[in-house]
Structures are given as structure tokens and as C-alpha cells.
Write a structure and sequence with these properties.
The protein has 927 residues and is of the alpha/beta class. Helix content is 39%, strand content 16%. The longest helix has 27 residues. It is an enzyme of class 6 (ligase).
């Protein structure tokens, strides 16, 4: 269609509009750009600059719990280190000196196990390799993975003193660990004793509780007769039930609860292995369950007995009479009172094997009944165990059943699927086994348990539920078994006098050991002349046993406060320990017990725990299920900032979920944050201090944005103080997406693009954009470490000082205006009435843009003073507006009269026919 002769062609006013200008691209391209920032920070010496900047500030110390140097990082490592890094960076930017020393746990069974696997693959026997050669291979293996993990942590954006990192295998660390053992030795808390501990027959070593995991296991069951030898119940049998028939050979007594009711039962018929006319004793409450489980038929309850009536009886071992030449099974088994016996399952009668249970051991010891050390290191019965010698405990149930059947004491047998303790390394079942071990006493004159409970009471826990967890564990835990029967670690460097069996407590000997370890490492203990060297000229080494057990790795990591904080002159105790919730029984507890046992107080002021990482369906990650999310793959596809955003968008106090869908969601959230930063940067092009508008002269809308910044500032600073960042990043995202992009940006783009350069409104907008840029870059810097740096230097230039060297902006108190916030909350609520009718008009085709509308809004008298009609048009992004009176708020659509301004696109009656411009745009274009 041809234009008529009278139609004038539209002028192009794009050159007169202040369009956004920024070098900050829309696409993050993080996998490519992030390594470039890492290289640049390394070149600039950013860590040294951070430490220099923090010299005069109050210190903040988050002490790093050491990950294990064994394999690539998994998603749990990423969660842990990112959370630590965010807290450290935020503390630094909040005005603290947040030094951070990353560390590694390098000793112990997992590494030893891997080196042994390499030996087995070469058909070599580890026991034939000289111990110093074996330890050297373990050290090399740990160093390889320590170096590997260092680079992976750096790629996550984690900032720390990696050049001065700590490792438990460093010579100074080994010296301090030996010295800490010496402290317990000299204060009398360290002793060697025989008592049951968790034992791995596969790994041939004692295990700590933190090294145990539970998995389904099928256990054989045994109901056995213990015949009463004499007295009123002579000829009757007490029936004990066990899911560990292999412990029967080590039985030494029985236990009943004096307060429970027991039934003396007369068996009427020969059902299964029951004999007509026999009498048995079981819990009265459990009798129906017992009958169903064992096939007991017709029977009568002769009488009820209290458990206290059974105490003091003597019974015969179930194998009695089978091996008359052995005394092992022929001595009477006393019935003891045990308050741990319940009537929840079984028979209410517990067979006691002090070799194989904590309660068994303690009760027997209290009655002068000792453990007999029935097993070898590999889980086979010792030679003295008549009838079962050489059998492995997990293959012994058939033999035990057979011996009981031959003796007439087998009442029933079966199998039970239940949760059972396994070694978390070998994934094999473990046992309780009494062996001579080294312990730290919880209840001696050092009163470690009481001190630990007092220290817990003085500690802040985030979340608070962590306090109850660790209290329960410390209150009931047995003495701390710190010995392990392996080679790769710090030895329990003590001597025992052979004649007396007494441990040598000599400060001079201990000092010589520590000094040697500091320069030569713990290998010094394994040299042939070590005993003579450390004992000195005044003692004959032939008179002493040199202990070769190594110390539990939990003791080592529990000592890190001594060789990382104290030895380096850092503040002690640390402000914060931060690990997964499983560390209440692991590192938190070992650190607590080690510190209170040597210094009387906890090594931390606060303890923060996070959950575990599950897949999107809430399942534990497993290679066999194919649901593992590897951090390396996430970084390769999305970038580390997306992984960091996922951590900080989650409620880390609970278990976290991750997977493809969740990561795509995080990528979308990141895109919105990035777009907000890009919009801000685009609107700030060319901003100078001459444009800055004082707060008092700003329009209300800009002062409302500043109020929101003051609220977020308080939220961020509160998170720094409490160490609790839950919800902070979602709030920052919500601010960007809802308050800015969907509201303030949308409203103010007209003023920013079309107002005159010297317009007060436009200058106010750009002043607020300046504050937004400084605040958001700073607040996001601890989380989006790469993106915040990019957004910062995109404005201030490539040579500008890093955002990570800035402090959080100090916002004026005058920005906080609760009354203004309440007013604008009401305006936004009423605005939704208007936008609703405009959206309906757009959907029906009446308008294509809100600028083609001039709606009416009826308001009650109380709301009439909120804004005038021009103000409502501005916040509704319409070209006109009409206020009306009504009892309740309601809006109606009306089209805007006039013509469309060719520059700002508002529809106004004033648009000039000559230039196609409204009065505002005409004044800007033709000043």
C-alpha cells in the first residue's frame, strides 16, 4: 500500500534514546570463563592480598575438617567445601580476617587397603614388605590424591591457603599427634585394657563407631536350653535366644531383669525339638511370640516368677558334656541381674559372652568373670576353643547348632534378616571382639565425659538439634578405643615394662619421641634402634615392649586443632567447625574429646552441620543405580557457579537433592540473576558522581528500593553473625526477580531510556542502579564468585581491584523506612488489580501493550492518597489513569486516548503531529 501524499514518513528516534550499553554478555559461558578467572587470581596473588587486607581486622577462623585423600571428589565434598567457602568469603567481606587452611586426612585403613590391593594384583604379600617401604608407598598414594583434590577444590572456586595446607601425614603434624597421645599418657587417661571393641575380621583391626555403617544382613538364630544345675528349678531350662550363635562357645553367664515377669512352662507334648514333660523358663510377656517362633505346642504355665528369683541360679553351658576332657564348657554359668535385659524381643533371658558385647563384658567383669579371648584376628576361633577351633565365626552356626542338638540343648533355629553393622570400607560385617587395646578413659580423674558435656552446653549448634545428638552420644559412649592394628599411621609411641605390665609415663622419653617425629616423621618409630634411642641410656630396651599399634585416625583428625591452629599461632578455639551431620559421632566428637581431655575446653565455639546429598527422587546415590551426580560433570556442563548456587539455594540443614532437572532449574535461576546484573550494568553506562542524587531528593519509588537494600543488608549480615545462610540466596534471587525485574526495572526503563540526561528522576534511577550494582555484586560474591567478579570488572575495568577484596557496602541508616515500605506494599497489592484487567484486555486483543491503556481504579477513601493519577499511570506502565471512589478496590479497562509517541511509545493526546512526539520527548530531542 502506497503512502498518501499527505503522510509524512516516521522519523527514527532510536539515536536519541539512552539504550543500555554493557560489555557484560547475556550468556555466562561459565565452563570456559571460570578457569580464566582462576588463572587471573593466581597471577594477581589474590590470596596474599586478602591476607594483607585482613591484617588489622578481628579474626574469623573456620577450621577445616580434613577430607580423606583417596580418590576424586564426590558431590558431598563439593557441598561441604562450597558451604565453607561461602561462609569464609562472607566473613572476609563483612570485615573479618578470614584465614582458611584447607587440610587432608592421609593415614589409615582406606589408603593401606588400596596399596594392599595393588600388592595383591602383583601377587605380593604385604606382610613380606618392609614396614618402612610399605609406609612410603602409602605416603606416595596419599600425596597423589591430595594434589589431585587440591586442583578440584580450586576449580570449585574455593579460596584458601593451599600453599600452606595441612595434612595429617606431614612431619610436624605427626609430631603433634604423638605429643597429644603423650598428654593423655602423662595425665593418666591412657591405659591398655581387654574389652570388646568393634572388630573387622576382613581388615583385622579395631574400628571406631564412625567407621561403621548399617546394612541388611541375614543372621542365623538359636534358641538354646541352659539347664538349671540345682535348686528349686533343678531340671528346668532357662531359654536364651541369640542372632549370633557363634558367640555361644564364649558364653560365661546368663542375665535376667529382676523386675520382669517370667513363666515356668510345662511342655505337654513333643513338638519339634521340645520334649514332653520338660520345663522351660521364658519371659511371660514374650511367651506367645516365643511359642509361635519355635513351634511350642500345648503347654501350661506352672507359675510366674520375678526375675529376681532367677538371679543366683547356676546353669550348664549348652555344650556341657560334649567335651568332658575340656574345662571350657563344664564350669557352672551363673544367672546375673542385668537392667539392660528387656522383654521387647527374644525370651527375656540373655546369654552373656564377655568377649563379644559391651553389656556382657561390663556385667561379667562386675562379678569377677573375665573374657577368654576366644577369637583370632581374622575372625576364626582360637585353638583353645574346643569343638570350634579354626572355624570362622560367620560360618560357625551349623557347627553350633549341631553341638547343641547333640547335647539336647537345641530348642529351635532359624534365620533373621535385619540391619547389621558393617565396615564402611570393606562393606563386610563386623563383630564385637575382646582384645587388648589402648583406651582413653572417659570417667577417670580427668573426667573427660563431664568436661565434654559442659563444653557442649557452652557451644552454639546450627541447627540446634545437633546439640541433642552429640549429647546423647557422649553421655553413653564407652571409653575411647584409640588403637588400630595396622601400619600406615602415627604409632601409639609408648613403652610398657615387661615385668610389671605398667605403661611408661616419662616426660623426657615423650619429648625425645616428639622431637624425632618433627624432623623425621613417624617413620622414626620403626627403625631398629628406636627403642634404645627413645628410652635413653638410663633404661634397658630389652626390659620394655615397644607398642606397634597405630592410633585411630579419628584421634589424628581430632588433634588438628593443635597442629593447625595452635602450632600456627591462629586463634584458639576456632569460631566454627562445619561438616556433615554424621560427624556428631565422628570429627566433632573426636575433636571435642581430644581437646577437653588435654585442655579442658572444646576447640570450637560453634558447630554447623549440613545434610547429605540424594538424587532427585530422594534416594541415596549409588553407581549401581546409575544416579550419581559427579561435581566434575556439573562443572564441565554448567560451571562451578551453578553448583555453588545449588548449594546456597538449598536448605543445607536438611538432606539435599540434585539431578538433571534440579540443575536445569538452578541454571534458570542463574540466568535471571545474571540478567538483573546485566540490566543494571546497561543502565549505568557513563554514570558519574555528578549525577548522584541525595536520598532526600529521590522519588519515593527509588527510596523504597533503598529500603529493600537495607533489609537485605541486615539479612546478609545476620547470616554472617549466625553462620546460618538458609534462605538468604533465595531472598536475593526473589528481590532481583520480583522487586527489580518484574517491578522497578519494568517501571523505570521508560525514565532511564527516555528522560533527559539531567532529569532528576533519571539521575535518581541511575544513583539507585549504582547502589544496586555495588550491593548485589558484593552480596553475591561469596556465592557466585566468578560471576560477581565479571560483573564488577565489567563496570570498573579490567584493572580494577577484585570484588573479593571489597567489604560489604556500609548502608546508611536513613535508607530504612518501614512506613514507606508499608505504603508501597499496599500500592503493589492494588496494582495487581490494574495489571489484571490489562492482561485480560491484552488476551482479548483489545491492546497489545499496557501503554495503550488508560485504566480506571476505584479506591476506598483510605487508599486515595497513596498516589495521584500520574503516579498510578507510572507504576502501572500505562499512558493514562483515572482514580475513582469505591467501597472496595476494583479496576476497569479503558483505552488510552491520543496518538503514540514515536520515541517512548506512550499514547497521549499531546503527541505532536509535527514530530510524532509527546511533550517530554520533544523537549529531550529539541532542547
Amino acid at each position: 500500500m502506497n503512502d498518501s501524499p499527505d503522510t509524512k514518513p516516521a522519523r527514527d528516534y532510536r539515536g536519541t534514546v539512552f539504550l543500555p550499553q554493557t560489555s557484560f554478555p547475556m550468556r555466562g559461558d561459565l565452563p570456559k570463563r571460570e578457569p580464566q578467572w582462576l588463572a587471573r587470581w593466581e597471577t594477581e596473588g589474590q590470596w596474599a592480598k586478602l591476607r594483607e587486607a585482613g591484617k588489622s581486622r578481628p579474626p574469623f577462623v573456620l577450621h577445616d575438617g580434613p577430607p580423606y585423600a583417596n580418590g576424586p571428589l564426590h558431590i558431598g565434598h563439593a557441598l561441604n567445601k562450597i558451604l565453607k567457602d561461602v561462609l569464609n568469603r562472607a566473613a572476609q567481606m563483612a570485615g573479618f580476617d578470614a584465614d582458611y587452611i584447607p587440610g587432608w586426612d592421609c593415614h589409615g585403613l582406606p589408603i593401606e587397603w588400596k596399596v594392599e590391593e595393588e600388592y595383591r594384583a602383583k601377587k605380593k604379600n604385604k606382610d613380606e614388605v618392609p614396614v618402612l617401604e610399605f609406609r612410603a608407598e602409602c605416603r606416595a598414594y596419599a600425596q597423589k590424591w591430595l594434589d589431585f583434590q587440591t586442583e578440584e577444590f580450586k576449580r570449585l572456586g574455593v579460596a584458601g591457603d593451599f600453599a600452606q595446607r595441612y595434612a595429617t601425614m606431614d612431619f610436624p603434624s605427626e609430631a603433634v599427634i604423638a605429643g597429644e597421645i603423650g598428654r593423655f599418657l602423662l595425665n593418666g587417661s591412657l591405659y591398655r585394657g581387654l574389652r570388646p571393641v568393634m572388630w573387622s575380621p576382613v581388615e583385622k583391626t579395631a574400628l571406631a563407631e564412625a567407621e561403621i555403617e548399617y546394612a541388611d544382613h541375614v543372621s542365623p538364630m538359636l534358641w538354646a536350653r541352659f539347664r538349671v544345675a540345682e535348686g528349686a528349678l533343678g531340671g528346668a531350662s532357662l531359654v536364651a535366644w541369640t542372632t549370633t550363635p557363634w558367640t555361644i562357645p564364649a558364653n560365661r553367664a546368663l542375665a535376667v531383669n529382676p523386675e520382669l515377669d517370667y513363666a515356668l512352662v510345662h511342655v505337654n507334648g513333643s513338638d519339634g525339638l521340645f520334649q514332653a514333660g520338660e520345663r522351660i523358663v521364658v519371659s511371660f510377656k514374650l511367651l506367645p511370640d516365643f511359642a509361635a517362633a519355635t513351634g511350642l505346642g500345648a503347654h501350661d504355665v506352672v507359675r510366674l516368677l520375678k526375675g529376681e528369683e532367677l538371679v543366683g541360679l547356676s546353669c550348664r553351658h549348652p555344650f556341657a558334656g560334649q567335651f568332658p576332657d575340656s574345662d571350657l564348657y563344664e564350669t557352672p554359668r551363673p544367672v546375673l541381674a542385668g537392667d539392660f535385659v528387656t522383654d521387647e524381643a527374644g525370651t527375656g533371658i540373655v546369654h552373656l559372652a564377655p568377649d563379644h558385647g559391651e553389656d556382657d563384658f561390663n556385667l561379667c567383669r562386675a562379678h569377677g568373670i573375665s573374657a577368654i579371648e576366644s577369637l583370632n584376628d581374622d575372625g576364626t576361633y582360637a585353638e583353645k576353643m574346643t569343638g570350634v577351633a579354626g572355624l570362622h565365626v560367620f560360618k560357625a552356626h551349623d557347627r553350633v547348632w549341631a553341638l547343641c542338638e547333640a547335647a539336647g540343648t537345641l530348642l529351635a533355629k532359624g534365620k533373621l534378616s535385619h540391619s547389621y553393622p558393617h565396615s564402611w570400607r570393606s562393606k563386610k560385617p563386623v563383630i564385637f571382639r575382646a582384645t587388648p587395646q589402648w583406651f582413653i578413659a572417659m570417667e577417670d580423674g580427668n573426667a573427660i565425659r563431664a568436661k565434654a558435656l559442659d563444653a557442649i552446653a557452652a557451644t552454639r549448634f546450627i541447627p540446634e538439634v545437633g546439640r541433642n545428638r552429640i549429647v546423647g552420644m557422649v553421655a553413653t559412649r564407652p571409653d575411647w578405643c584409640i588403637s588400630r592394628q595396622r601400619a600406615w599411621g602415627v604409632p601409639i609411641a609408648v613403652f610398657v615394662e615387661k615385668r610389671t605390665g605398667e605403661v611408661l609415663r616419662d616426660e623426657a622419653v615423650m619429648r625425645r619421641i616428639v622431637e624425632a617425629f618433627r624432623s623425621e616423621g613417624a617413620d622414626a618409630w620403626y627403625h631398629p634402634d628406636a627403642a634404645a634411642r627413645f628410652l635413653g641410656n638410663e633404661r634397658n630396651p630389652d626390659d620394655y615392649e615397644q607398642v606397634m599399634d597405630i592410633v585411630d585416625v579419628w584421634f589424628e583428625s581430632g588433634s588438628t586443632h593443635a597442629f593447625v591452629l595452635e602450632a600456627r599461632g591462629m586463634p584458639w578455639p576456632a569460631d566454627l567447625y562445619l561438616e556433615g551431620s554424621d560427624q556428631h559421632r565422628g570429627w566433632f566428637q573426636s575433636s571435642l574429646l581430644e581437646a577437653v581431655g588435654t585442655r579442658g575446653v572444646a576447640p570450637f565455639k560453634s558447630v554447623l552441620t549440613h545434610g547429605f546429598v540424594l538424587d532427585e527422587g530422594g534416594r541415596k546415590m549409588s553407581k549401581s543405580l546409575g544416579n550419581v551426580t559427579a561435581p566434575q560433570e556439573v562443572i564441565s556442563k554448567y560451571g562451578a557457579d551453578i553448583l555453588r548456587l545449588w548449594v546456597m539455594n538449598s536448605d543445607t540443614a536438611e538432606d539435599l537433592r540434585i539431578g538433571k532437572t534440579i540443575l536445569e532449574q538452578q541454571a534458570e535461576l542463574y540466568r535471571r540473576l545474571r540478567n538483573s546484573l546485566r540490566w543494571i550494568l546497561g543502565g549505568l553506562a557513563g554514570f558519574t558522581e555528578a549525577e548522584r542524587v541525595p536520598v532526600a531528593e529521590m522519588p519515593e519509588l527509588e527510596r523504597w528500593v533503598l529500603h529493600r537494600l537495607s533489609e537485605l543488608d541486615a539479612r546478609v549480615r545476620g547470616a554472617v553473625a549466625s553462620h546460618d545462610w538458609s534462605g538468604v540466596v533465595p531472598e536475593l534471587h526473589g528481590f532481583c526477580a520480583t522487586d527489580l525485574s518484574a517491578f522497578w526495572f519494568d517501571i523505570r526503563k521508560d525514565a532511564l531510556y527516555c528522560d533527559g540526561a539531567d532529569s532528576l528522576r533519571r539521575r535518581a534511577v541511575r544513583t539507585v542502579l549504582d547502589h544496586l550494582h555495588r550491593c548485589l555484586c558484593a552480596w553475591l560474591a561469596p556465592v557466585l564468585v566468578f560471576t560477581a567478579e565479571e560483573a564488577w570488572r565489567a563496570r570498573f575495568g579490567e584493572e580494577a581491584e577484585s570484588i573479593h577484596l571489597q567489604l560489604f557496602p556500609d548502608l546508611p541508616a536513613e535508607w530504612r523506612d518501614e512506613a514507606l515500605a508499608a505504603k508501597w506494599a499496599r500500592i503493589r497489592e492494588l496494582r495487581r488489580e490494574v495489571t489484571g484487567v490489562i492482561e485480560a484486555a491484552r488476551a482479548s486483543g483489545q491492546v497489545g501493550s499496557s501503554l495503550q491503556a488508560a485504566p480506571a481504579l476505584a479506591l476506598p477513601e483510605a487508599d486515595r492518597a497513596l498516589l495521584d493519577e500520574e503516579g498510578w499511570a507510572e507504576v502501572s506502565i500505562t499512558s493514562g489513569f483515572r482514580l475513582e471512589t469505591g467501597e472496595t478496590p476494583s479496576a476497569r479497562f479503558a483505552p488510552a486516548p491520543g496518538a503514540k509517541c514515536e520515541r517512548c511509545w506512550r499514547v497521549l493526546p499531546e503527541v505532536s503531529d509535527a514530530h510524532g512526539l509527546c511533550l517530554r520527548c520533544e523537549a529531550v530531542v529539541q532542547p
